[in-house]
């Protein structure tokens, strides 16, 4: 099923503004219509009341017996509407004495009504608003009427004159909105073009000049992502380069030992030696690959998850027991000194075990036969110390560098063990220091 692409942000904002403007215009029109109609009703009711009171002070005795009418005259300004106002004057017995000459003569007499009333003219279905008022001498009744349609038309004209300019201005506002949105979205379009033309391994951050404040967190997150991606690519390239460089020698040695074993068919002793060397080379290559993969996995970690409290005394005891038999085979005695059995740290047991195992393996591997390796736990650190010859100051300054091995070493190794130790310590917020012990030997101390 083909997915439809969403509308552009500019179009969505324009449509949303249009809908909101129309809804606001309609609501304002309804409210204005209601309020204007109510105000006009009060105004016209007051007008009818004032007109009726003015008529009530006339000299009714001078009216002729036949109902006269007011003559219509042309006026220079304004217009005369028969529905605007109509009136009639009756005697109390219902005889019409005076009317306006138009709709007033069609107002039916009401004997009982006093005040405002709604009704109709004779032979007419239009609704009218009437005001009945009795003169002070109780001999005459005055009625002033106004058609309801006239009031509504007047209210509609007022509302139309007020709201039409806003309706005309709406297209202009939309055009202005589209122009403003185009100007405001221009930095985003520029940012998109920059991302489209960006090289995959580029580490330079994206510029945030002119970017709206709401979009700036996205740009910052992208810059952080580019930095992490660049670091990861560099790490992968370094791993590939290191693996290719370091595996070249073991693989070449394996090929040589394989050739020697193939050429030693007539000499079982030489073939056995070649196979033993081949086995040793395979172990070395496997250890190198394992250390490279471990270091690569540790480099990819920024923080550790699933931490748990670890008793360092139990951790060191387990590591010493695991390395006890290899140490005995090498003629080395491993001793554990626990000065504080209550020390506990938050960490990952497997990584901390790897840290201690690498330190013990390094001490056992590079100590002469008959040596002693002391593992000591204190309140704020633990240390692994051998009583070998130590290392020179020049080598001590570079110890811990990847693939660095002090000169004069007879044991095989990759130079990655102490680098792994340092990386695990940093992930656990620990500090590793290397040095020569004053009483002789090499010491590695992990403190927190």
UniProtKB/TrEMBL annotation:
Organism superkingdom: Bacteria
Major localisation: membrane
Record-annotated Histidine kinase domain positions: 242-448
Annotated compartments: Cell inner membrane
Cell membrane keyword on record: yes
EC number: 2.7.13.3
GO cellular component annotations of the record: plasma membrane
InterPro entries xrefs: 2CSK_N, HAMP_dom, HATPase_C_sf, HATPase_dom, His_kinase_dom, HisK_dim/P_dom, HisK_dim/P_sf, QseC
A Pfam family hit: HisKA
Residue ranges constituting the HAMP domain according to the UniProt record: 185-234
TM spans (from-to): 163-183
Record PROSITE patterns: HAMP, HIS_KIN
Reaction(s) this enzyme catalyzes, per UniProt: ATP + protein L-histidine = ADP + protein N-phospho-L-histidine
Gene Ontology molecular-function annotations: ATP binding; phosphorelay sensor kinase activity
Record membrane topology: Multi-pass membrane protein
Class in the EC hierarchy, top level: transferase
Name of the protein this chain belongs to: Sensor protein QseC
Species, as recorded: Kosakonia oryzendophytica
